[in-house]
Amino acid sequence: MVDAQNRYSDRRPTMPEQMPERETVTVPPAVKMAMEAMENEVRFCLRVGESENDRFERIGEWFQSETGYLRPGKSYPMTGPPPEDREQVWDAWLARKRSVTRAALAALKAEYEDGGLG
Q1: Taking a C-beta distance cutoff of 8 angstroms, is the pair 100, 32 a contact?
Q2: Going residue by residue through the chain (118 aa), what tens digit of pLDDT does each one get?
Q3: CA angle, 72 as apex, 69 and 74 as ends, to 5°?
Q4: Helices 29-44 and 86-112: crossing angle, nearest 10°?
Q5: Rg (CA), the chain
Q6: Among residues 40, 96, 42, 86, which one has the least CA distance to residue 64?
Q7: Could you give the CA distance from residue 85 to residue 69 in angstroms, rounded to a whole number?
Q8: What is the DSSP letter of 50?
Q9: pTM
């Protein structure tokens, strides 16, 4: 059906003032945990148009912003050797990221595995 204003009258409204009121929905804690875990996991993925080297650098910057260490594989400045515990800090950082994902998966399974809605 053609409409002079929208061309097709079955189109959804696109302007904020045309949008219906949105019902407030409470997101279950297990779903919130899963969303946060997936955000972390996605940060490890190669992005569209990104080279593997760019990904390496991006993850390295993320690691450094959270730990203060350069990631393994990065050269420290000539002013001194890299910290001896850098590999252990890297391994612990990765383990924390993985544990968030595992905890979120366990929470989702506990909440929804029976096929119910919580």
Answers
A1: no
A2: 444 554 555 566 566 666 667 778 888 888 888 998 999 899 999 999 999 999 999 999 999 999 988 888 887 776 666 778 889 999 999 999 999 999 998 888 888 876 555 4
A3: 85
A4: 140
A5: 23
A6: 86
A7: 10
A8: -
A9: 0.66
